[in-house]
Amino acid sequence: MSSSPTSGYSVMINVTAWLIVCLLCPVQPRAQPGTTSNIKHIVVGRCYDYITLVNPGLRLDCEDIWRLFEESVVRQSSFNTSLDYHQMFSAIPQTWPRDMGLFWSKTRTLMHSYTAVERHFWTLEDTLVGYMFNGLVWCGQEDDSGFNFRSCPTWAEVKHHPVYSLWRRASQNFAEMAHGNITVLLNGSIGNAFNMKRHGNKLRSDVFLAKVCIKICIHLSLFFYSTHSMFASVEVDSLDPCRVDYVNIKMVTNLDGPFIESCNQGSVVDLIRILRSRGFHWTCTDNDE
Ligand SMILES: *[C@@H]1O[C@H](CO)[C@@H](O)[C@H](O)[C@H]1NC(C)=O
Ligand SMILES: *[C@@H]1O[C@H](CO)[C@@H](O)[C@H](O)[C@H]1NC(C)=O
Ligand SMILES: *[C@@H]1O[C@H](CO)[C@@H](O)[C@H](O)[C@H]1NC(C)=O
C-alpha cells in the first residue's frame, strides 16, 4: 500500500477529474468498477494470512466467514435496505487490546509513520474485518445470481451501499469495543479536521458522500481514504464514556503548514464540546513535540 509522491499527485488529479465528471452529471448513474475480481481468493487468503501470521491465537473458519459474507451480499440486490452482515460479524470474535484504539481523520500519511513508531496502536485495519476487506469493492446484482463484476453503483447513488454498510458496521464495532485510553489523530492542515458538519445538513452530507464515493470507487487500494470520515459520522457516536478513560486528541499539521486547526480553533472545538457533554475525559495536544 505504499504510494510514491507521484502517484499521490495523480490520485489528486484523478479525484479532481472525477469530481468534475460527477458534478457535470449528478443524476446519470455512472458506470463504476464492479466487484473486485478474485474477491473470494483475496478475502479468504487474507483471512488465512491474518489467523496464521498476524494474530495466530484466533481460531476461525475462513471459508465459513466468506460464506456468511457472500450470503449477505448476494441476498440483497436492490440497495434498498442496509446490509448488516450480522452473521459474519457474529462469527468473528471481537477481542480488543486495552489502551490501543487509534482513530484518525485525514491523517493518512501521519497514521502510517505514527503506527510504525508506536507499534502498540490498534486501528481498524488491524482487525480481521479491516484486514480482509481493505480496498475491495463488491455488490450483488438484481437477479440474485452472485456478485456483480461488471459495475457497482457509487456510494452516492444508492441509499445503502454494501461496501459502505460494512465499513460503517466495522467502524461502529471498533469504537464500541474501544476501552482505556484512545488516541485520535486529526489533521490540522485542513479545515474541518473533525468532519462534523455532515450531520443535519442534507446538502453537505450529499457532497460528503459524493467525495467518499469518488475516493472508494477510484482508489480501491487506499483504504484510509475510503473511511476517513467514519470518525465523525460513526465512531464518535459509538464511543462509550464508561469504557473509555481518556480521549487523547493529537492535532497534527504538515511540517510546512498550513496551520488551520488546533486544539482551540476550528472543528476540533466541536469535537471537544461533544466529548465534554457526554462525560468523556479528554486531552488535546497540538503537533507532537
Ligand atoms: C426501493 O425503495 C423505493 C422507495 O422506497 C421503492 O419505490 C422501490 O420499489 C424499492 N425497490 C425495490 C426493488 O424494492
Ligand atoms: C493533511 O491532509 C492533507 C490533505 O488531504 C494531506 O496532504 C496531508 O498529508 C495531511 N497531513 C497529515 C499530517 O497527515
Ligand atoms: C491515559 O491518558 C491520560 C491523559 O492523557 C494519562 O494521564 C494516562 O497516563 C494515560 N494512561 C495510560 C495507561 O496510558
From TrEMBL:
<dbReference type="GO" id="GO:0030890">
    <property type="term" value="P:positive regulation of B cell proliferation"/>
</dbReference>
<keyword id="KW-0732">Signal</keyword>
<protein>
    <recommendedName>
        <fullName>ADP-ribosyl cyclase/cyclic ADP-ribose hydrolase</fullName>
        <ecNumber>3.2.2.6</ecNumber>
    </recommendedName>
</protein>
<comment type="similarity">
    <text>Belongs to the ADP-ribosyl cyclase family.</text>
</comment>
<dbReference type="GO" id="GO:0016849">
    <property type="term" value="F:phosphorus-oxygen lyase activity"/>
</dbReference>
<dbReference type="InterPro" id="IPR003193">
    <property type="entry name" value="ADP-ribosyl_cyclase"/>
</dbReference>
<keyword id="KW-0520">NAD</keyword>
<dbReference type="GO" id="GO:0016740">
    <property type="term" value="F:transferase activity"/>
</dbReference>
<keyword id="KW-1015">Disulfide bond</keyword>
<dbReference type="GO" id="GO:0005886">
    <property type="term" value="C:plasma membrane"/>
</dbReference>
<dbReference type="Pfam" id="PF02267">
    <property type="entry name" value="Rib_hydrolayse"/>
</dbReference>
<feature type="signal peptide">
    <location>
        <begin position="1"/>
        <end position="31"/>
    </location>
</feature>
<keyword id="KW-0378">Hydrolase</keyword>
<keyword id="KW-0808">Transferase</keyword>
<dbReference type="GO" id="GO:0061809">
    <property type="term" value="F:NAD+ nucleosidase activity, cyclic ADP-ribose generating"/>
</dbReference>
